[in-house]
Amino acid sequence: MDIPESMKAELASWNGGDGTSLESWRSCMGNFSLAVGYCSVFWPEFIEFEGYLLRKEFSETSLRGFASRKGTTRAAVEGVMNHKHIADLHSVGCEDLSPDKALLLGRILKEIYEVKLKHQFPDRPCIVEFYTPEDEADLYEYQISFWQR
Fold it and tell me: What's the predicted TM-score (pTM) here?
């Protein structure tokens, strides 16, 4: 995995400036509660509901609202219902998000979702999209979503 440039300086500052590897840093900085929490991001639960493929935690009220709009397609409803902002991985105020970290996370999540959806719903091909904003500094606009082809 390519380490984002914004993390290389942090890793290099460890051990009195001798640096550390990403794996060593993770083992020092992480904890098992966070690892369990990240499972919901890196291997999310998807379900089928009335022909839609959705994240398990979807809101039926929101689904009905989007689906009732004139001219809305099922794919558009799924795309809206399944979108997640990379910045929402942690709460507002988590200041270490940067464009290079958002890009890496989004690209990895795209691959994970493609594999998970294909594994879980082999007969229902999906499109997984990682949206990157034109203004890379607009950190809230990095998003991942999926819908059936």
Answer: 0.90
